[in-house]
Amino acid sequence: MKILLPIDGSELSLHEVRFALRLVREGLQASFLLVNVQEPDSLYEVVTWPDPDVRAQGSRAAGEDALQPAVALLREAGIACETEVVSGDPAHAVVDLIEEHGCDMVIMGTRGTGALLSVLQGSVTQSLMHDSPVPVLLVKPPQEPQAPGEPA
Fold first, then answer.
1. 69: Cβ–Cβ under 8 A, 6 or more apart, which residues?
2. For residues 60 and 83, is the Cβ–Cβ distance under 8 A?
3. DSSP string of 96-150?
4. Nearest 10 degrees: CA dihedral of 113, 119, 123, 129?
5. What is the sign, positive or negative, of the torsion defined by CA atoms of 34, 16, 56, 42?
6. What residue ranges define each of the domains in the chain, with the CATH number in brackets?
7. What's the pLDDT tens digit per position in 31-73?
8. What gap in Å lies between CA 50 and CA 140, rounded to an integer?
9. Exposed, middle or buried, 27 (CB in 10 Å: 0-12/13-18/19+)?
10. How far apart are CA 150 and CA 102, in angstroms?
């Protein structure tokens, strides 16, 4: 089974990698494609760095940097992985990569935003759930430890 893991460089995305590793330790035979999607160039970036090659190199470097902690977790576990850095709308880019790489599943996190914020911002998770040709496994963020005596 080939699993796509969207990685944004956050601790939450590393939590999702750890969850995927847990599945492997419990017997799932899987290979991984780690993906970082960079936002399209802003007007400021176009004006500041008019050379599109310079912007592309900067974007690629930022994406590769964001992927490194996740790659390190997999390597520590003895698991090889593929990586991709792409630019564009995250949900559409992930769907394209699912098809290009023949992925069987996506594992990604929920960001814990409230209903109103989700409606106002739009949701990559919701878009991907709707558009993905393969199952999307959502991983809840880890719960923060509670101090003794705090209500649950």
1. 9, 14
2. no
3. HHHHHHT--EEEEE-----HHHHHHH--HHHHHHHH-SS-EEEEPPPPPPPPTT-
4. 110
5. positive
6. 2-139 (3.40.50.620)
7. 999 999 987 765 656 567 677 676 668 888 889 999 999 999 9
8. 40
9. exposed
10. 47
